[in-house]
Specification:
Residues 183-247 form the Signal transduction histidine kinase subgroup 3 dimerisation and phosphoacceptor domain. The chain contains eleven helices and six strands. The chain is α/β, with parallel strands linked by helices. It folds into three domains: 2-140, no CATH class; 180-244; 257-392, Histidine kinase-like ATPase, C-terminal domain (Heat Shock Protein 90, 2-Layer Sandwich).
Length: 399
Amino acid sequence: MIRRANRPVRRGLLIVEVMLLGGLNLEQAVRKLILQGPPPVGELLYFAAAVVIAVLALLRRRYPERITELAAGAIAVSLACSAVGFLAKPAADFSGDSETLALLLLVGAACHRLPPAQAGAVALVGGVTIASAPILRYGNDSAALTVAVLWAMVWGATVAVGLILRDGNARREAALTAARNRERLALARELHDLVAHHITGVVVRTQAAQVVLADGPEQETLQDIERAGAEALAAVRRLVMMLRSPEQELPVTTGSLLETVEAAVAGDDAVTLRLAPGLAELAVAPETVSTVHRVVLESLTNVRRHAPDARRVTVTVEHAVEGGRQCLLVEVLNDGLRPGRTRRSAGGYGLIGMGERIDALDGRLTAGEHGERGWRVLAELPLPGGVVATRRREEGTAQ
């Protein structure tokens, strides 16, 4: 799946959140710190807590993988203020709109993004924190109880919105998975019925020619053709096996990844190649190696075609572990995007072909603007074996 690096919607939502949270805190600061003179200590404490929680809520967009920690920190700050309000009863006028809004944003994000257990814990503790804050800080009079009920209702609506977004994501992922499975099986049938059939015919005819021309000078050439055909047929069968059973571990190979990448950029002095340490020992399936070769070649071709004025072109290949899943990252970055001009993807099928090959491996392709003048192609390819599997095999052999 090709994902564009375009974020106008997210930036718009971030701007709205900054305006809401910043506006509420600014209104509190002007009204209580300036217009009404020196405020009580309790109001200063609650205002400082609101600012801290608002910052934590905004940081969730910058660090979406740390929503749990950000929500826990915001809830801890709010509960600490409520505990001080309950024990010390500091003088303070009723407030807390920006703090509550920030907590609601974190609760909604948790229900949307986090695993069920973490999302449930954050939602439950966040709801108790939001609903109990008015009563603990300002007493149990009718005004505080009314506000507590109102905030509890808004909390329920926030949880519902987060769960709706979560369900939408799950439905979309299920639809994409089903579509990928259909495409994978259709491609496997085409490879098995057409490509493998024709390659088998070539190998059989070559073997027959060797029998007929047993003593001829063409014998060595025919043997090379037979060997190349057999290797191609084995590669097609491996690919068919992968497409039909993607969960099955593939045969892996070592030592060819570096040569493949270096061959793809050979002869181009304008390209800077960055290879992470340890790639030579990395176990990579043959289909992944060929996909890396295609990604690098096609990306460099697009640079020469669409960004001839690029001064820096960098190809980076590295191994990463994300969420316990090993993957190979292939990045091609150039600075040939002119200021004020949005580059469109290639008019041909190069980018589409890359995306289809990477989809077949359950990988991800991101292509789009990067920085002020940059254009980046980033391929994330899962590794069925990886370094850990290779080391285990080596240890088993040694034993």
